Every structure is written in C-alpha cells, then in structure tokens.
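User: I'm writing a short report section on ligand binding and want a predicted complex to refer to. Could you take this sequence and fe (ii) ion and write out the structure as tokens? A short remark afterwards would be nice.
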Amino acid sequence: MKRAKMTPWFSPFELIRHAPDVLAAAVFGQRADTRLTEALAAPDARFFDYSGGESSVGEFWMDFVADTGDGWNSTYAVASAVARPELILKDSRGAEHRTIRGGLLVFGGDQVYPAASKELYKQKLVQAWKTALPRTDPPNPKVFAVPGNHDWYDSLVSFTRLFCSRDWLGGWETPQTRSYFALKLPRHWWVIGTDVQLGSDIDAPQIEFFKRVAGEMKPEDRIILCTAEPHWVYSRMYAKYNAAVYNESGLRFLEEKVFATPAQAGGRVSVFLSGDLHHYRRHAAADGRQKITAGGGGAALHPTHGPDVSALEGGYALATCFPDQKTSRALCWRNLFFPWTNPTFGFLTAFLYLLTAWAVGADIGPFRLSEIRQAVSTTLLEVLNKPLAGFWVIAILLLFFLFTDTHSPVYRIVGGLAHGLAHLCALFFIGWGATYYCVSVRGFAPGSFEYLWRCALAVAAGGWLTGSLIMGIYLAISLNLFNRHSDEAFAALRIEDWKEFLRLRIDASGDLTIFPVGIRRVARRWKARPAGEAGPSLVPDDPRATAPAMIEDPIPVRRPAAVH
Ligand SMILES: [Fe+2]
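Assistant: Sure. The structure tokens for the complex follow:
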C-alpha cells in the first residue's frame, strides 16, 4: 500500500473530496448520534479490569498517543517508538531511565486524517501501526481509542468497525465495544476515556455508564482522564469570544459530579490527557495535578506560541512546551514559502483571479505607466457600474471574511477585509501589467484573440503565485503579530517533525510517573531492520533523523492515598 504524505490541508482538490463528508457529519452528527446506537448494542458495558487484583506486583506501563494516522514518516516514527520492547531515555542530568512498551495503549482522538473512511484508516493508521508491531503470540498489549472530530466525520462508522468490534490493530487487541471506556489499573488508578463527539456535550448513556463505573471505585481511587479535546486550553483561548461552546463544563461535570469523592479535595482526576492540538503542552497545578496536551502522534505540528495560555483556571500554570515558543514562532515564518509547500492551492487563486478579472473586464487604457491612477479609477468605476462585477467582488471579500479566524469578530472584519483587499490589489496590478505588456509592448489590439489568451494566461499564472504568496504572508502575520489563525498557519506548513507521545508507569508503590517522549526530526527514509535486532520491522535510514528522547524530566504524580 502507498505510504501517505502529510495531508495537504490547503489543496482545493482535497477540500472538494472531503467537504461533503465533513458537512454531512456536522449536520447529521448531532441529530443521529452513533453513541446512542452503541449504547443500545452493548447495554451491559462495564469497565475493563487490568488491575491484576490485590495480588498485582511490579510495574504497570501504558502509552498515550493522540492525533496519529497522517503521513507515513511521522505516524510510523511514533508507532515504531511505541512498539519497541523498551526505550532507554536520559533525563536532564544524564541519568538513564528504562521504559517498557505499555501493556495498554490509549489513542487520544483523531486516529485518521483528513476525514474518516475505511480506506484512509487502513492506509494512514493501520499500515503504520501494523508494521511497527505485527500480531504475535500472547500476551498481547491492548489498545483503546477515544474518537476525535476527524473520526466523527463519517459518523463514527469506520472507527466503530476498527476499534469497537473486538478485533486487532496490528499486535494490539481492541477490546472496547463503545467509543468511551473505563479501565481499572493496578494500585487504585483508573483510565477514563470520553467521547465528546463533534464538540457537543457528553450524552446521557455515557454519563450513566460513568456513574455506574464511579459506583465501583474506592474512595481513594484516582483517574487519568483521556478526552479528545483540551478544553482547559480552548476555554482559556476562546471563552471570551464564545463561552457557550468553549468551556470546561463537560469536564467539570465529570470531575465534580460524576467522579467526585469526599476522600480527595477537587475530585479523583489527577491527570487530564488530550490531543487535538498537535504539540506537547503541559500545565500543572500546585497540588501536582497535570493537564497535558500531547497530540504529536503523527499529524502536522501545531504552534505552541499564539494566544496566551500561561495560566489556566483552577491554578494551573504552563510548565513545558515542545517545541518551545521561540522555535514555534520561527517556524511560522516558513509560511512565506507557501506556494512551494502548498503548490495546488494556487489553482484556486488562479481560478478566482481569472474569474474576477473577467467579471470586471475594465478597459484600463491608455496603458502608460504614468496613467496608473487613471487605470485605478476606471477599474473602480467599472465595478460600480457593472452589477455582476460588483456582486462578484463583494462575494470575494465575503469569502475571505468567512475564512478569517472565526473566534475574534474584530479580526474577522479587519483581517478578512485587509486580506481580501490585498488579493484585489494584487489582481489589479497583475491585470494592468498583463494589459500593458500585450497592448503597449506587443501591440495587440485590445479584445483580439491574441490579446485575450495572453492576458488570461498572465492573470492565471500571476494568480497562482501571488494569490498563494499573499495567503502565506497573511497567515504568518496573523499568527506571529496578532495571535490568530494558529490552526491554519501551521496546517499550511505540514511539518512532520516534533512528534511525541506519553509513556506512563505505575510503580510497585502506586506512584504514577509520566515520561513525555519526543522525536525532534522523523526519518524521511526507512530500511528493513538489521537481522538479529529486536523491534519494529522498519528502522530509520536517514542520518538526520533523531532518536526518541525525553522532552522534559519524568513527571511524578502523587499516589492514591490508600497506598501511602
Ligand atoms: Fe487532530
């Protein structure tokens, strides 16, 4: 099967291919909720017990990977690091830590890009993870997955087929039957995986399920909560624009109502894990609770700079980012090379520039450089006098308004307008230049066939390059100067490096330690594993690739009170 490249988010062809599914999911997802069907199909769902009972001894290991299933290099780099029987990682003092492949793997949402389908899961997720760890003799590790918005784009059909049918993902067994789950781990720890659908609240059967699970917990039990969206970050970033959508109410309801316990102030949840943002960003509270965004499982890097999230509600403060904010800001300037990173985007701007020039069709003679002011006023008059041209120009400006960062109304108007006008100005100069060349330099009669096709070609070529360049400049400025368009500015870069996942250990005494593992640069080429070595069947064949390394020192989390 073909190895996938990183999703070209700014390709108009990709947009046309997947837009109908995404729209259908947005329209029908909330009305035909697959989670209700799941609940009916498996009414007696219980938690999975991996605690090993009272007699459990030794260490328990678990891996957490989110936002995997994109380009081969990045997805396989993470999958093969997770699949290795062990990883030796050095902390900041140079001390070595032996970490073991988790008996449990939790996928934290968005297991496929850009949209869900049986074929895309196979090509982008299954192929990489199966190559990293094929099915072997027992004991086999288990994988559980919470769905993210990208999994929901086919109303969860393919996700359910892959993860909720008691099947296999390579060497990992998939025991879950619903899109949310509860796992009992040794020494009073639990993993709770929620399904927040397309950002809507948690449904009633899911709440009922978690209430039943909470009823089976001991007062001192503690929770690692896995959710597909870092609501703690989004509520800080966007609540001032839309508090009804971006808030922590769903999480807080689980934390304070469903999983509350008198034994622990603030509830049982000690660790919140999420992806959705494709980077590593950890917030910690003074009492040792952690909120970690770790969406570096394969999808294109997201920035760690932008809106200020240094302090969150509940006393959480930003501890570490990967990549650091300075690096993230520097990477953003790569948008100035937008036409080279997103070559097909230019077809859209070329087409729009051509249509606009056609609609306006201004006769901007007499084609002398000194008459440019005259040409501007002729063009403006043409737009005002031709209803179709006026309508088209307004439609173009509206398009940019709609594209502009939807969270800030002010930026939407000012940024959208400035962006749209920049394109219209560029088009004017391209059109004027093309006309000047054809009439004044080459001497073609305006309106002649020679004149028309040359002008059209020049406008399309200019539109391809300039339209893309303006988009890149707009994205770079928006994020680096105004903290807007975080998603779009980095989606355009399609960066496959700076990947990461979390490895968690519950030791014999019940302490939880989190090892954040980062891969600074993933391999671009792969070769068969040398004979006699253990591990995944393909290994890097790229001297510039970096080995998995600790992003920051291991993070200790207080053990449940009962095992002190
Ligand atoms: Fe994602």
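A remark for your report: The chain has a mean pLDDT of 88. The CA atoms of residues 283 and 318 lie 4 Å apart.
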